[in-house]
Write a structure and sequence with these properties.
- The complex is a heterodimer of chains A (about 90) and B (about 270).
- The N and C termini of chain A lie far apart (about 45 Å).
- Chain A is built from 3 helices and no strands.
- Chain A has helices at about 5-30, 35-50, 55-65.
- In chain A, helix 2 runs antiparallel to helix 3.
- Chain A is mainly alpha-helical and about 90 residues long.
- Chain A is extended and about 50 Å long.
- By secondary structure, chain B is an alpha/beta fold.
- Chain B has a single domain (about 5-260), classed as TIM Barrel (Alpha-Beta Barrel).
- Chain B is about 45% helix and about 15% strand.
Chain lengths: ~90, ~270
């Protein structure tokens, strides 16, 4: 596809997603209380969008990933939350 | 359009979904064993589940003209209890020769714990001893990168395992290359909120090639879309993929991988 075709196919969908992210951050700001580590992780990952580097999707995923390499002693539960809390 | 759904948990779907999938061109479903949403209390629960996967569910699928294949294991989410896992792995050989069983799966890791790794190694050993295909689940979200690396190391450490007989599922942009570099197949799961969207899956196919990749809906009792594969196929067609090329990914590739089992026939 040409860049023009990519824009024709995906611009409106991603414009809506961009506004959704902006509205989400506004919603978090309006809310009361402390945010947990996920918000900082989200904002850090957002930097990957504007740095002009290729593979932004990969870099966002890496930014939100546990970078350690050793298995943990015991599973703390079953779920995942989408961001990594550095110990 | 014709396609194969290579990873679907049909025991948690309704007959309406079978109708929709068959209508959309689905020819075959492959169903790995998975977590029920709660921990089973004993090996007997798994015995009954394996009966469901190898006896009842193929009959239910056949009512809608669909071939049904399955994979057996104790899912990584229940692998923290190593003693229960040993019991469950102990009964798998009783089911492994049933005609719709293609291999061991979906094994892997969930939270990347030492016990999960032990159970993964036991499953890999069973697959090696019985010469079965392997279908691997990689962890969710923040745990995926680390878990994928650990899983690849376990597979590499067992010299009996042939990389091309293992599919590593739920890859995303940060894990697909390392999986393909090891010679494995890679699966992309199309979910509305996590894993891959259809557009991202098409990006991955265009970036990393489509020789050893398949797409699946992994539809289960959670937020998931049984028709995710044909929806992704439409996405590819919108981008200008030919019908033949789409067919090679959503129909040809699952056949090429699963045909490594002599039981797979379509």
């Amino acid at each position: 596809m040409t860049r023009q075709q990519v824009l024709d196919l995906y611009f409106m969908e991603n414009r809506a997603k961009l506004i959704d992210i902006a509205a989400f951050l506004d919603r978090v700001d309006r809310a009361e209380g402390e945010a947990d580590f996920r918000l900082a992780g989200f904002k850090e990952a957002m930097k990957c969008l504007g740095d002009g580097a290729p593979q932004r999707a990969k870099n966002v995923l890496l930014s939100l990933s546990d970078p350690s390499i050793e298995p943990i002693d015991k599973a703390p539960g079953k779920g995942a939350v989408g961001a990594y809390l550095a110990k | 359009m014709r396609y194969i759904e290579p990873h679907a948990h049909m025991v948690s779907r309704t007959t309406d979904d079978y109708i929709k999938m068959a209508t959309a061109g689905c020819a075959c479903v492959s169903e790995p064993a998975f977590w029920a949403g709660f921990d089973r209390s004993s090996v007997d629960g798994f015995h009954d589940y394996f009966c469901q996967l190898t006896d009842y569910e193929p009959k239910r699928a056949a009512k809608f003209g669909l071939a049904h294949y399955s994979w057996l294991c104790i899912n990584p989410k229940e692998s923290e209890d190593v003693e229960l896992a040993k019991e469950v792995i102990g009964i798998i050989p009783k089911f492994i020769d049933r005609p719709n069983v293609l291999g061991i799966g979906e094994i892997g890791l969930n939270k990347n714990s030492r016990n999960e790794l032990k159970v993964l190694e036991m499953h890999v050993d069973l697959a090696a001893r019985t010469n079965e295909l392997i279908l691997v689940h990689t962890p969710h979200l923040e745990d995926k990168l680390k878990g994928t690396r650990l899983i690849l190391d376990v597979l590499k450490a067992d010299s009996r395992i042939k990389p091309e007989r293992c599919i590593i599922d739920h890859v995303e942009e940060h894990t697909v290359q390392m999986v393909l570099d090891r010679g494995h197949w890679a699966g992309m799961t199309l979910y509305p909120e996590s894993k891959c969207t259809g557009a991202r899956a098409a990006d991955i196919l265009e970036t990393y090639g489509h020789e050893r990749l398949w797409m699946n809906s992994a539809c289960d009792w959670g937020v998931s879309v049984p028709l995710a594969v044909p929806y992704a196929a439409l996405e590819m067609r919108k981008r200008g993929w030919t019908a033949e090329k789409v067919d090679s990914v959503i129909y040809g590739n699952p056949i090429r991988f699963m045909s490594q089992s002599p039981k797979f026939k379509l």
